[in-house]
Write the structure tokens for this entry.
Amino acid sequence: MSEALRHWTAGGATLAYAALCATIYARQRHRAKVWTDAAADLAGTADSPVLVLHATQTGLAEQWAWATAEALHRSGQPARVLALNALDADLLAGTPRALFIASTYGEGDAPDGAGAFADAVMHHPAALAHLRYAVLALGDRQYSEFCGFGRRLDAWLQAAGATPEFARIDVDRGDPEALRLWHEHLGLTAPAASAEAETAFHPWTLRQREHLNPGSLGGPIHRLHLQAPAGMAPHWEAGDLVDLHLDSDPARPRAYSICSIPEEGDLQLMVRQTRHPDGRPGAASGLLTEALQPGQSVPLRLRPHPGFRLHPDAQRPLLLIGNGTGLAGLRALLRERIRRGQHENWLVFGERQRAHDRLLDDELTTWQAEGRLARLDRVFSRDDDDGAYVQHRLLREAAQVSAWCERGAVVHVCGSLQGMAAAVDLALRQILGEPAMRRLQREGRYRRDVY
């Protein structure tokens, strides 16, 4: 995945500090209306509330926005938490103080939580001499454009005449010292890193593993069924992620899209085995697809991914687009929709060969035959009679894609960042046009889990 949360440092201090902020985030989301009312009450007798703005891809920036707002609230300062896509030029023009917590997507791009703002606001000059601001940029130094969007946002604000309260703070993979420095520069007390870690790793036991694509030109894909530890009652939502801890590389947990919903009784993953040039299997994929045996356990940590969960308006049509093991996240969303009795679902999915890569074929065709999956389009790029990718199928079905989106469809994209996700994005922009794409982003109807 593209955001820094994929690469959290797994050292003790980092885990405790990050887990505490995740706890704050979860608590504040649970009582969001109470928090909003409290901020509104304070704003009635004090200056305008501080805007705490997040630009997120997988949820880390939003977590830190809520943690910052909590600290402001404790210090007596009213605060309002918003996604950057919810900020327009007029609101920014009337705001005296704003704190920006911005992740970066891919190689320096705006994350989905800020795409509409970047297109509609940052592409134009602004007059912001009245604004005091600070930027916390989240990134990962393994990418060439480290904190690229946060840096561009900071430069745009300065060019608009806004006054930085202090120099931008760049955070590499959730570095706890940089995050504490953020609180210190804001004059706030950082949370003590002593809260019980709700997001700790726990041993999950492998019950069953299935090889889904024998004979494929691609790497072997396995479906894993994992059982939670005894006495644990895990909860996650369709769209969420799970982190795998590796003793050989504790600083970089590996993240996977969850393939199932809790009502199915186990946690399911779809993992493609990767190999190094010398033939060695990848550390994480080799463990999950080969070394781990039924009855053995691996340390996993559930991770909320609010930006990829189902849209709050459950009645909207759902357009699911992906490739490879991206089917895992899409399958969980589809399974939850079916559980709710919502059947206006369209899946567009790509793999290599029809003969070997019809992943989850029995399940998908059954759902289609039962009317629970309104439409199923599978594209196999290596077959001579197909020879296309998912973006080509979308372009071929442009009229239907447009019609679904005009009826309010939510679009979910899951799969590879390089190639598929970028090509699908271009295809959607060609089909729908830039104004419609900005509207999808602004309304939270364009959701991506790409890696």
Q: What stands out?
A: The radius of gyration is 22 Å. The longest helix spans residues 12-30. The mean pLDDT is 87.
